[in-house]
Amino acid sequence: MLHSFAPSCLPSITSTHPLPVSPLYPLDEDISGIDGTCSNATYAILRDMHELTKAFLARWNYIGGPCPRSSDTGFAEDMEKIHKRLLNRPSFRDDVKQHWIYESCRLAALIYCRSILHGMPLADSANAAHAESPAGTNSSKLTIKGALRHALESTDRWNHWGNMSGVFLWVCLIGGAGSIQDRSQEARINKCFALYAMQCAIVNTSKHANAMIESQRTMLWVQHLTNLKCGILSLRN
Questions:
Q1: Which of 62, 102, 123, 168 is 20 to 30 A from 110 via CA?
Q2: Close Cβ partners of 132 (under 8 Å, ≥ 6 residues apart)
Q3: pTM
Q4: Over the stretch 89-130, which tens digit does the pLDDT of each residue have?
Q5: How far apart are the C-alpha atoms of 87 and 89, rounded to whole Å?
Q6: CA distance linking residue 96 with residue 53, whole number of Å
């Protein structure tokens, strides 16, 4: 009975569960794989943040001694261009889920880019005052981190943004890093970032363990280098 049996091909885990592409992964390739899974505006932000991450790590991991002075100007100019594009992007705050994903990425990028550009700990960037208060909030002293939490919780989080799970993790890691030194009354609430990141990591580790580990390792390295840059700048001043 089994002589004529031919087993069907098992689906590839990569095809059923796409890689968790984000500004943190993969650094040696582009992130065009998520183009089409989000709005064009969201993808533009993520592409810029991916380029920023890659350039920043390459600049500070320069092999063979200090990076040549001639490259400093070009690197700073590229970062400024990315930061300027980010600052010019509008805020979308309505009930459209796709817009809240965009807003979550925009706010996370503001924290991330500011820290890399100015050599500032993510906690300092995250706790900077936010100019606009999202609908449903009444705080006159809202921080960027608080706005990020509101935007993130306005999205559909149950599946960690589906094919954008890597981006979801990146946003949560930024929020979590921004809350690490928070001792205010909001501290317990802000721990939601760490909880969401942990849930996302656990769910995706069984599918793409290496990618999830590499993403978290890259984020830790970015944090380390921004703190290192902060110390160098303080010594110069």
A1: 62
A2: 91, 93, 147
A3: 0.84
A4: 988 765 566 689 999 999 999 999 999 998 889 999 998 888
A5: 6
A6: 29
